[in-house]
Amino acid sequence: MPPLISRSLRAATFAATLALASCVAPISYTEAPSATPTGEFQVSPLDAALRELEAGKAATDPLLASGHFVECAHLAGHQALEGEPGGLALYNHAVARLVESLDQADALPWGSSITVGTGDTTRTLRGRLESDAPALDRTYRPVDNLQFRGKYSEIHAYRSGVGAPLVAIYPDNPDYRRTLDPKLKAVPLTAVLRLEDRTNSATLELVDPLEVDRISIAGREAPLAADFSAPVSLMLADSRIDKLGLARLINPQKYSDTARLVRLQDYDKNRIPVLFVHGLQDTPATWAPMYHTLIQDPEIRKKYQFWVFSYPSGFPYPFSGSLLRKELDKVNRAFPDHPDIVIVGHSMGGIISRLMVTDADDKIWRGLFGKGPDEMRISGASSQILLDSVVFSHREDVGRAIFLAAPHRGSETAASWIGRLGSRIVRMPDFLTDARNAVVSVATADAASIMLARAPNSIDTLSPSNGFVREVNKIPIHPEIPFHSVMGDRGKGGNKDHTRPVSTDGFVAYWSSHLPGAASEKIIPSNHSAHQHPDGIAEVRRILHLHAGTKPD
């Protein structure tokens, strides 16, 4: 680069280049009235049902409109039982419009009954919430009104069947950090309308599709319709958490309160938690393709629940590891009976995950400073930050680990001029600078020489020459915790040692991501985004089936 270009300009150019990745939403949506599914059937047998549907859409009184939607569902349901093509689609459409109409009027009859319709079509409509549902003022969006776009909308997890898939959106929960809920909580539900001709009544019932696969309706067993990906897609689109990736890399202290573990579905003590941990300059949004693929698998859906750990990726990764341990302690207080976790980490998230299955005790500390913590006169907050980051044991609540494109032995990119330039734009928090200064003030000359002139950030701790990286790789993973490695080679192959051409995903070489003792190791033709490549996702799916003792369909 010409010397006339200043270091600050190079840093600004580097930051601007990174920012381009955050400009386009990976998933967004528009909300528009769903079209009547007339293209799916011959109209004549369903003429009466269609007239009721159009009358409902034209009505301004929500209770009158609801009566028409109930009657449409009644007529279409009978035709569906007779085998009429499109009858079920029209029934589902009418049920969705019924929920939509009553929700907009704040008239949904959960736990009560209302009168809908007029004249001969007057009915008593009762409402029944799903099993164990809280009495909350949720809002409901029919999925058929939501049109998702963007690269994370390409995989859609759903199940065809009876009922109208909904996204139920919970009211603001000021206690969401303690409950480990998303700030914006949305869950999948399915609305089913049961009609009683003899009593001229009907029941609008909500069913949790994560708990119920099939229902009995009109004397027959049928699959329950469901959309499993829409709630997470809506949360990602509304929160735009993906925009935090670069901001949290550059200024992690400003976003320190965003470090937290979040559950993507209601807690179930019988389901195994899968915890996703993202990498550098990333957010939990990066797991959307894998989540949507895995939740489509019926056995995985039945056996597992999904959590994510979100954190500012500018922090040095040993410190981020300490934040994750605190979040896991919080999980154990809230849900002490949870099954052991399968932790899945990508890139820097992989090496953070590795810390959860490693017994470091004080070995790393002694390797760095030449003496134990009790021999060094460090006190106060600095002492606790260092102890939490460097002295740790494996988590007894983690039962298996999966590492994807994890730079266990560092990345030469982090040590290159690109990495050094990127490192200089990361602003380290004052409390980490104070901790670094406290160490240097009491360390031996040799130990002090391994410390940077400033507090190390995440990019510094990805360098192969970083002291922590060297020391942690002297310690094997806990022998009772199976672990798996997935790494990319861009389809180019290459040598597995340092001999050129080196097998690499473009950022992490095989020699860095390989760990001896793995229960399995798979190289896929991927760049660094191995967690989004179909082969990488398929390998994680295989491992989850192995862990649960099930077989893929």
Which structural traits does this protein have?
disordered N terminus, Rossmann fold, 20 helices, 6-stranded mixed beta sheet, alpha/beta, 19 strands, 553 residues, elongated, 7-stranded mixed beta sheet
Could you give a short description of this structure?
With 553 residues, the protein is an alpha/beta fold. The protein is built from 20 helices and 19 strands.
Describe this structure in words.
This protein is 35% helix and 18% strand. The chain folds into two domains: 28-231, no CATH class; 240-548, 3-Layer(aba) Sandwich (Rossmann fold), CATH 3.40.50. The strands form five sheets. Strands 13-15-14-16-17-18-19 form a seven-stranded mixed beta sheet, sandwiched between helices. A six-stranded mixed beta sheet has the order 2-3-9-8-7-4. A two-stranded antiparallel ribbon has the order 1-5. Helix 1 crosses helix 15 (417-424) and helix 3 (62-81) runs antiparallel to helix 4. With 553 residues, it is an alpha/beta fold. Residues 1-22 and 443-454 have low confidence and may be disordered. It starts with 6 loop residues before the first helix and ends in a 5-residue tail after the last helix.
Name the CATH architecture of the largest domain.
Answer: 3-Layer(aba) Sandwich
Structural class: alpha/beta
N-to-C CA distance: 54 Å
The rounded Rg comes to 27 Å
Estimate the strand proportion: 15-25%
SSE blueprint and pairings:
Blueprint: H1 7-19, E1 28-31, H2 47-58, H3 62-81, H4 87-104, E2 113-116, E3 123-128, E4 139-142, E5 146-149, E6 158-159, E7 164-169, H5 176-179, E8 186-196, E9 201-207, E10 214-217, E11 220-223, E12 226-227, H6 230-239, H7 244-250, E13 260-263, E14 272-277, H8 288-295, H9 298-303, E15 304-310, H10 317-334, E16 341-346, H11 348-355, H12 363-369, H13 380-390, E17 398-404, H14 412-415, H15 417-424, H16 430-442, H17 445-448, H18 467-472, E18 483-488, H19 510-513, E19 520-524, H20 534-548
Parallel strand pairs: 3-9, 14-15, 14-16, 16-17, 17-18, 18-19
Antiparallel strand pairs: 1-5, 2-3, 4-7, 6-12, 7-8, 8-9, 10-11, 13-15
Helix pairs in contact: 1-15, 2-3, 3-4, 10-11, 10-13, 13-16
